[in-house]
Amino acid sequence: MYRRLILPILFRFDAETIHHFATTMLKLAFAVPGMAALARKVYTIDDPRLARTVFGLTFPNPVGLAAGFDKNAELVSELSDLGFGFVEIGTVTPRPQPGNPRPRLFRLKADQGLINRMGFNNRGSGPAAGRLRQFAQAKGTRRVIIGGNIGKNKDTANESALSDYLICFRELFDAVDYFAVNVSSPNTPGLRDLQEREPLTRLLSALQKENKDRPNPKPILLKIAPDLTNGQLDDIIGIVADTGIAGVIATNTTISRECLATPAKTVEQMGPGGVSGKPVRERSTEVIRYLHQQSGGSFPIIGVGGINSADDAREKLAAGASLVQLYTGFIYEGPAVAKRINRGLLR
């Protein structure tokens, strides 16, 4: 019903406007007494065969929601009730920022994809941490694994980026279960330069030092771009070994415009930004497989990119991923997508 009736109506309106409308409606719906319990009954699958223990955390199922949907940690409870085994909030930055000018989110309907150049629009790491603490303290709230995706402010020079990441790390430390270090978004100028071996090793080593100085260190993962060469992926494997971080999230959005079914002129009119969804599925799987094989499976990988179905998730898991995440697939497939994927994995 969602794809046949609801999606065509939603797609008549601007993508970002509909995103805000849908999230507002979700909050309002779940404010109705009994709605959360009903949603859990309809959308969640509680089966011990789905549980995964990865980097010291036990996930109720391997299907998570990627960063970008709940930037400000406002929907963690609702999203967990829709069957996701974990929710990654953000990307958050130390200071609030509006992001890039609108329009900045576009649908590639023929490709089941999106182009976005949001630019880390968020209300800051402090308010996000406060909301997560309220969520954790709420009476009777169902527990879900929460990831904190952290980045730097647009006006912070790369030479000072570490300070921004440390601020976010400190703010969120007691409020999340793991961290995702985002140096791979194409929508913050110069950010991807931090993926080079020397600056990235410096950044992750400093975060790890801060992490290990605390009584209960949190897993730190690195989110990488799908556009890295094999040589750069070899560097990533070396950096993971050198810094001792917990794993890798593969992958973020791509700047490539190859093999799109959407007319080139239409894509050009949309302008710059990262492509997500089905167009990145194959490349993200290639990256996962390369990292897993070349590292000998020495670290966990969260697979992201073009996951709309159980078959897509199975592909990522077979390539070497321990868990999977989706975002664009949630938009195209609707609120039952996590349930359908988990049910398919059980089969």
TrEMBL record:
<feature type="binding site">
    <location>
        <begin position="116"/>
        <end position="120"/>
    </location>
    <ligand>
        <name>substrate</name>
    </ligand>
</feature>
<protein>
    <recommendedName>
        <fullName>Dihydroorotate dehydrogenase (quinone)</fullName>
        <ecNumber>1.3.5.2</ecNumber>
    </recommendedName>
</protein>
<dbReference type="InterPro" id="IPR005720">
    <property type="entry name" value="Dihydroorotate_DH_cat"/>
</dbReference>
<feature type="binding site">
    <location>
        <position position="182"/>
    </location>
    <ligand>
        <name>substrate</name>
    </ligand>
</feature>
<feature type="binding site">
    <location>
        <begin position="67"/>
        <end position="71"/>
    </location>
    <ligand>
        <name>FMN</name>
    </ligand>
</feature>
<feature type="binding site">
    <location>
        <position position="187"/>
    </location>
    <ligand>
        <name>substrate</name>
    </ligand>
</feature>
<dbReference type="GO" id="GO:0005886">
    <property type="term" value="C:plasma membrane"/>
</dbReference>
<dbReference type="GO" id="GO:0005737">
    <property type="term" value="C:cytoplasm"/>
</dbReference>
<dbReference type="InterPro" id="IPR012135">
    <property type="entry name" value="Dihydroorotate_DH_1_2"/>
</dbReference>
<feature type="binding site">
    <location>
        <position position="71"/>
    </location>
    <ligand>
        <name>substrate</name>
    </ligand>
</feature>
<keyword id="KW-0285">Flavoprotein</keyword>
<feature type="active site" description="Nucleophile">
    <location>
        <position position="185"/>
    </location>
</feature>
<dbReference type="InterPro" id="IPR001295">
    <property type="entry name" value="Dihydroorotate_DH_CS"/>
</dbReference>
<comment type="function">
    <text>Catalyzes the conversion of dihydroorotate to orotate with quinone as electron acceptor.</text>
</comment>
<keyword id="KW-0560">Oxidoreductase</keyword>
<dbReference type="InterPro" id="IPR050074">
    <property type="entry name" value="DHO_dehydrogenase"/>
</dbReference>
<feature type="domain" description="Dihydroorotate dehydrogenase catalytic">
    <location>
        <begin position="50"/>
        <end position="345"/>
    </location>
</feature>
<feature type="binding site">
    <location>
        <begin position="327"/>
        <end position="328"/>
    </location>
    <ligand>
        <name>FMN</name>
    </ligand>
</feature>
<feature type="binding site">
    <location>
        <position position="182"/>
    </location>
    <ligand>
        <name>FMN</name>
    </ligand>
</feature>
<feature type="binding site">
    <location>
        <position position="149"/>
    </location>
    <ligand>
        <name>FMN</name>
    </ligand>
</feature>
<feature type="binding site">
    <location>
        <position position="277"/>
    </location>
    <ligand>
        <name>FMN</name>
    </ligand>
</feature>
<dbReference type="GO" id="GO:0006207">
    <property type="term" value="P:'de novo' pyrimidine nucleobase biosynthetic process"/>
</dbReference>
<keyword id="KW-0472">Membrane</keyword>
<dbReference type="Pfam" id="PF01180">
    <property type="entry name" value="DHO_dh"/>
</dbReference>
<dbReference type="GO" id="GO:0044205">
    <property type="term" value="P:'de novo' UMP biosynthetic process"/>
</dbReference>
<keyword id="KW-0288">FMN</keyword>
<feature type="binding site">
    <location>
        <position position="251"/>
    </location>
    <ligand>
        <name>FMN</name>
    </ligand>
</feature>
<dbReference type="InterPro" id="IPR005719">
    <property type="entry name" value="Dihydroorotate_DH_2"/>
</dbReference>
<feature type="binding site">
    <location>
        <position position="91"/>
    </location>
    <ligand>
        <name>FMN</name>
    </ligand>
</feature>
<comment type="pathway">
    <text>Pyrimidine metabolism; UMP biosynthesis via de novo pathway; orotate from (S)-dihydroorotate (quinone route): step 1/1.</text>
</comment>
<comment type="subunit">
    <text>Monomer.</text>
</comment>
<comment type="similarity">
    <text>Belongs to the dihydroorotate dehydrogenase family. Type 2 subfamily.</text>
</comment>
<dbReference type="InterPro" id="IPR013785">
    <property type="entry name" value="Aldolase_TIM"/>
</dbReference>
<dbReference type="GO" id="GO:0106430">
    <property type="term" value="F:dihydroorotate dehydrogenase (quinone) activity"/>
</dbReference>
<keyword id="KW-0665">Pyrimidine biosynthesis</keyword>
<feature type="binding site">
    <location>
        <position position="306"/>
    </location>
    <ligand>
        <name>FMN</name>
    </ligand>
</feature>
<feature type="binding site">
    <location>
        <position position="223"/>
    </location>
    <ligand>
        <name>FMN</name>
    </ligand>
</feature>
<keyword id="KW-1003">Cell membrane</keyword>
<feature type="binding site">
    <location>
        <begin position="252"/>
        <end position="253"/>
    </location>
    <ligand>
        <name>substrate</name>
    </ligand>
</feature>
